[in-house]
Write a structure and sequence with these properties.
alpha+beta
Length: 251
């Protein structure tokens, strides 16, 4: 296992929702930022990566939130590489509050991509040394997310792709998928519930689409809501599958 890399983030005004809690998308922004900072600290900056015509593309995200955080809270975000395997990398994230309580835990699965060939390529040997990946680490099981597809659609919502949605890798940033599914949920769910778990499977990069559609099936389960989301393009091609779990906010 690689050494743990740590960074302190403050929950700013732009990171909060109307309840003054840290937005789910902001947690993802913190995780993306610290991953790049970790790489750069080892001499593997994103700029250098792109200059060599390589990049990382996230395939899966598994995220659990255990308790909310508030405006101006200081959060300690930690990350490390759990394993490398051929062209896969598994990265772990943990976020702690000022009382040293674990508020979020996440794991991502990413491909190492040859941008010229537009396909996965083998992770260079020196990456294993940089991240201190042992022979034992190489044998850690890699779990790919599996989703049960549903034909039922309770909500269909269209979103236009904006120029500001495009990131450093020249495709729609991963966080936007989460913003879309949150904005597609009924207002009473967004106001009275908060996401406690989210699983994401990115199937196709969104680069030059004019718009996308989010189809959602959701069910109330006592004080919880379970939702399945499918993001498609105008030709009905699947771009991403997501599964969200929401818990009712206690007054």
């Amino acid at each position: 296992m690689s050494k743990v890399f740590k960074k302190i983030y403050e929950v700013g005004y732009r990171d909060t929702n109307p309840r003054r809690e840290c937005k789910f998308s902001s947690y993802m922004e913190f995780m993306s930022d610290i991953a790049f900072k970790h790489d750069a600290s080892l001499g593997l900056s994103l700029s250098n990566l792109l200059e060599s015509n390589h990049t990382w593309v996230v395939f899966n995200y598994k995220i659990k939130v255990f308790k909310p955080t508030k405006y101006q809270d200081e959060l300690r975000v930690e990350t490390y590489i759990k394993t490398f395997r051929k062209y896969f990398a598994v990265r772990v994230f943990e976020i702690y509050n000022e009382e040293n309580e674990l508020v979020l835990q996440s794991e991502s699965l990413a491909f190492f991509i040859d941008m010229l060939k537009a396909k996965p390529c083998t992770i260079p040997d020196y990456y294993y040394n940089k991240y201190n990946i042992s022979e034992e680490d190489k044998n850690i099981k890699i779990d790919k997310l599996k989703f049960e597809k549903t034909e039922r659609v309770d909500i269909e919502k269209k979103f236009d792709i904006r120029y500001t949605d495009i990131d450093f890798n020249l495709h729609v940033g991963n966080v936007n998928y989460v913003r879309w599914i949150i904005d597609s949920m009924p207002l009473e769910v967004v106001k009275d519930y908060r996401i406690c778990e989210l699983n994401i499977k990115y199937e196709k990069q969104i680069k030059d689409q004019e718009s996308i559609i989010v189809n959602t099936k959701f069910e109330y389960e006592q004080d919880k809501v379970h939702a399945n989301h499918i993001i498609i393009d105008k030709e009905n091609n699947e771009l991403s599958l997501l599964e969200s779990y929401w818990e009712k906010i206690k007054s």
